[in-house]
Design a protein that fits this description.
The complex is a heterodimer of chains A (about 250) and B (about 325). Chain A has about 250 residues and is an alpha/beta fold. Chain A contains 9 helices and 10 strands. Chain A is globular, with a radius of gyration of 19 Å. The chains are: A alpha/beta (about 250), B mainly alpha (about 325). The interface between A and B is medium-sized, with 31 and 23 residues.
Chain lengths: ~250, ~325
């Protein structure tokens, strides 16, 4: 469903600090796949997501999404079918709006944001019932401003907001990295549950070797703009932590 | 009595300005310095319209449209030409200065003593009721505008406008055009600011090019004052702007009543501004609870003592 063809991307192009990252990068994601992306800092993981959701433009190459070219589509147009959750929990929600207001905006994605009231009584009960899936008691705090929530609660809300509009592709950018181990685990379980429930193709960046092994049905490792490891299905299940770590260390030499 | 009537009239009149400024300052969370151009723009447009014999509602609509266009210009400089927010406001303000001169036919002031305005007393009313008539008109205008804005900010479009200031990235993530919402915010804000300019010129019956000078700091002081006192109570943005404006005008009027020289007003404004920025938002709640008479725990009574020292009766 997602095809990246012959992608070239250089940072600070035509300056002394020119830094080529992707030289001729090719990458495919199949419909329904849950791909875990590993790689050290500067390997191009986040750049990859930025190119896919349009926050960065490619210098050369094509990006196809469901057989349609979207190489030059602006970011907010791609957002109709692509959602993203960031590492920083505050990036996925509006702190000054309440939980129910945030959710109602997310549920409205894809339809016009017009002069109808954002929240009414029927949408309130609907939103409360969706929030119970998070198991965090947020359905009791519908009118609390998101600014007063903890990082874990905000990230759970960000995740839910990203998926309720049924996007075709979900990009997770180290979305549990800023959370404590227990919350991080809860968010990962939630992620798995929501992805399956909404049947969303997913790309997840992580630095947690354990998560990379436990979740997803394909694992890739990026290094200096190249895919250096790509394991699927059974091969991925057989993968051992020390194997992955050994791979990691061999690259950083 | 006259003192309080004046404070109420001035406070309500300029609360329109405060609500407009709050839209950029609090909702979009961007500074908009073009206020000092769009305020007299609304004034000069309505003054010219009235001089040409156009009816009052048309003059008010034309003034608001003028302000709307000024907001579009500021937003265009920012989103299309990628000029910094602060600078684009200054550029619009500078351009409007010349435009205001041109609209007035290269005159820097226009008297409106011959024409009837919104605030002209109906012939059947006794002249002694003038101030009361103004007060009732302003109450109607300010509260309709407040209700309209409150309603708008709760619509889907209005909520996205709030997100545009709060978390611009989320607007894009929801598949909406951020620049369009920023333009909407600036336009709406400046339309209201220009409307206030029109109301002021209709009240004073005199347009002067310099009537915008210092208006931004006064409006911001009102917004910050209302915010510091009321934000912890969960009050609406418009309520905070109106209360802030009333308090600001009260302070200014008190200073004048204490026979301080009018030239010291800017200094007083700066002082109010600093005090409003420094006081803790929780003080607002404390004042409210002490007014209600309930909830007398130690910290609350201590804070309210502090406050009462600051405002001796």
């Amino acid at each position: 469903m997602l095809v990246l063809q012959d992608i070239q991307k250089t940072f600070h192009l035509n300056t002394l600090n020119e830094q080529p990252l992707f030289k001729s990068f090719n990458f495919n994601v199949q419909e329904g796949e849950f791909v875990v992306v590993l790689g050290s800092n500067g390997s191009g993981k986040s750049t990859l997501l930025n190119l896919i959701d349009g926050q960065l433009a490619v210098d050369h190459g094509k990006i196809l999404f469901n057989d349609q070219e979207m190489t030059h589509l602006p970011s907010f147009r791609r957002a109709q079918s692509i959602s993203r959750v960031y590492q920083d929990p505050s990036l996925g929600t509006s702190p000054q709006l309440s939980i129910v207001q945030n959710m109602s905006l997310a549920l409205n994605k894809g339809q016009p944001y017009n002069l109808k009231q954002g929240v009414d009584s029927t949408s309130r009960t609907h939103i409360a019932s969706i929030l119970t899936q998070l198991n965090m008691g947020l359905e009791e705090k519908l009118d609390v401003k998101v600014a007063y929530l903890s990082g874990g609660q905000r990230q759970a809300l960000s995740l839910l907001m990203a998926v309720v509009s049924h996007p075709k592709l979900l990009l997770l950018d180290e979305h549990t990295a800023a959370l404590d181990p227990k919350t991080s685990q809860h968010i990962m379980h939630l992620t798995q549950y929501l992805i399956r429930q909404f049947k969303i193709t997913t790309l997840m960046i992580t630095h947690q070797i354990q998560d990379a092994l436990a979740y997803g049905d394909r694992c890739i490792m990026l290094h200096e703009g190249h895919v250096v490891l790509d394991v699927c299905a059974e091969a991925k299940q057989r993968l051992q932590p020390n194997e992955l770590l050994a791979h990691f260390h061999s690259l950083s030499l | 009595m006259n003192f309080w009537l004046d404070v109420l009239i001035q406070g309500l009149l300029y609360s329109v300005l405060a609500m407009g400024v709050a839209l950029t300052f609090k909702v979009l969370q961007r500074p908009d310095l073009s206020v000092e151009g769009s305020f007299p723009l609304g004034a000069v447009i309505s003054a010219m319209a009235l001089t040409l014999g156009l009816p009052v509602p048309i003059a008010l609509i034309m003034a608001s449209l003028g302000g709307w266009c000024a907001g579009q210009l500021t937003a265009w400089l920012q989103t299309k030409l990628k000029i910094q927010p602060l600078l684009s406001g200054i550029l619009t303000m500078s351009a409007l200065y010349t435009l205001n001169l041109m609209i007035a036919g290269n005159r820097s002031n226009l008297p409106l003593f011959q024409t009837s305005t919104l605030f002209t007393l109906p012939s059947w009313m006794s002249v002694s009721l003038t101030r009361w008539y103004h007060l009732i008109l302003l109450l109607l205008i300010v509260f309709s505008l407040k209700l309209l804005l409150d309603w708008f900010l709760q619509t889907k479009k209005g909520m996205i406008l709030q997100v545009a200031g709060d978390n611009p990235k989320l607007v894009l993530a929801l598949g909406e055009n951020l620049s369009a919402y920023q333009a909407l915010g600036y336009s709406l804000s400046n339309a209201i600011i220009a409307l206030c300019g029109a109301l002021v010129v209709m009240m004073t019956r005199f347009y002067d090019l310099s009537m915008g000078f210092g208006i931004l700091v006064a409006a911001l002081a009102s917004v910050v004052l209302g915010d510091s006192l009321l934000s912890s109570t969960g009050a609406k943005l418009t309520t905070m702007a109106i209360v802030g404006s009333l308090l600001y005008r009260f302070t200014i009027a008190s200073a004048l009543a204490l026979r301080l020289h009018p030239s010291s007003l800017r200094l007083i404004t700066a002082l109010i501004f600093v005090i409003a920025l420094v006081i803790k938002p929780t003080y607002g709640k404390t004042i409210l609870t002490s007014l209600k008479g309930g909830d007398n725990h130690v910290s609350a009574s201590r804070h309210s003592k502090n406050i009462s020292l600051k405002h001796p009766k």
